[in-house]
Amino acid sequence: MPRRSLIPTLTTHGGTAVRTVEEVMEKLLYRHKHRETRIAARVMDFGIRWMDQSSSHTESGYYAKIDGQDMLLSANALRTANRLIESKPSHWDQYPDRDAFSKSLVHILDNKTNDGYMLRHNGLQVNAILPGDYQVKDACELLVELIEPLEKAVGKINGISVIDQGDGDITSLRVIIGENIIPSLRDELGQYMMFLLNTSETGAIPTRSVLGLFRTICTNSAIRDATKIKEWNHRSEWDRFWEGTMDTLRQFGYFSTQFGEIFTGMLQAKLGVPAADILVVLHEQHQITNGHFIESQSWVDQPTEDGHPVETQYDLFNVLTKAAQGLQSIAAQHKAEQAALDIFTDAGGLIASLRTAYERQERSRNRRRV
């Protein structure tokens, strides 16, 4: 059996299941054990070159020579390598010389004075080419370090939902914590606090942490706005990110209470107009993206999990968070999840959010007229 089939993949978009901590750790640890790092003083030492498909190479592409084995550079490896030379993979399509990319890597990078380069691979493919000062922390390492502080701050972890893109290129860990924050709803229909850890084992994105909400019946998520996100680029001080993340955890009790009060009120707050019409306004006022709007339209006429039409602010919130699952990238999903929570929890809630967006749009139109 080819080794590729032995590498497990985690849940992707569209109704992500909730797993136990042990189940998630088992999969992440497996991937961690099969990921290796190679350090070289020069990128030339990785032997990167173009190779056409042949009996010994299943597909054409750029390959590196690692411990005597040819390994194909994945799409993320190409992205990270091109980032080092401030280029894009598509840039090299115009050159008939297929080795133009690897020659440029050597010419540009090996003439620099730096800390060398790091190559990450899983035994089958090269997953990333990174600067030598990149600090590696796989998803399993990060989760291990966070479990104890989470349990200490909250006392109960209900499970983890994982959205995974590529072989660890982007991993979004949604840790569901604490009790249902809406006591008037049965637990299976309620909302829970969530700690989001978004990271990359292959240098695709920085590691980020933030609080949010999670609804277990439909695995919908919502996260706080971008200004509240703690970020680590794997080259700066880890301690600063860790301290910021611990500060986030210390805010858990406050936001659990605040969100509980807000969403309890939203249960009874009737929309007054068709939910589909409000979606149009949200879209026109640029509070949700075009993709988020299209996905939301497919859910707005569907009955809720307990069988009634979308008629309250809470129902509409769940439409927006459900629609986020259908977006094609984790980045787009996060943006939609941020928008959903912002719209309903900013001062004044939905109505104030619509009014503020309308006033902002009018000011912009008036400036254009002048």
What does this structure look like?
This protein folds into 3 domains: 1-35 and 138-268, no CATH class; 36-131, no CATH class; 270-370, no CATH class. The protein has helices at residues 21-33, 75-84, 100-109, 139-154, 238-250, 252-268, 275-284, 290-300, 313-324, 330-345, 349-369, and strands at residues 18-19, 36-40, 49-51, 61-66, 69-73, 117-121, 125-131, 157-165, 170-177, 192-199, 207-215, 220-223, 230-232. It is an alpha+beta fold and 370 residues long. The N and C termini lie far apart (69 Å). Strand 4 and strand 5 (69-73) form a beta hairpin. The protein has 11 helices and 13 strands.
Features:
single chain; 3 domains; globular; 11 helices; seven-stranded antiparallel beta sheet; alpha+beta; 370 residues; 13 strands
In short:
By secondary structure, the chain is of the alpha+beta class. The chain has helices at 21-33, 75-84, 100-109, 139-154, 238-250, 252-268, 275-284, 290-300, 313-324, 330-345, 349-369; strands spanning 18-19, 36-40, 49-51, 61-66, 69-73, 117-121, 125-131, 157-165, 170-177, 192-199, 207-215, 220-223, 230-232.
Main beta-sheet strand count, sense and barrel state = 7 strands, antiparallel
Distance between the termini: 69 Å
Overall mean pLDDT score?
88
Output the number of helix runs.
11
**What ranges have pLDDT less than 50 throughout 5 or more consecutive residues?**
1-14
Order of helices and strands: EHEEEEHHEEHEEEEEEHHHHHHH
Share in β-strands? 15-25%
Number of domains: 3
Number of strands: 13
The class by helix and strand makeup works out as: alpha+beta
Shape: globular
Helix content: 40-55%
Radius of gyration in whole Å, from Cα? 23 Å
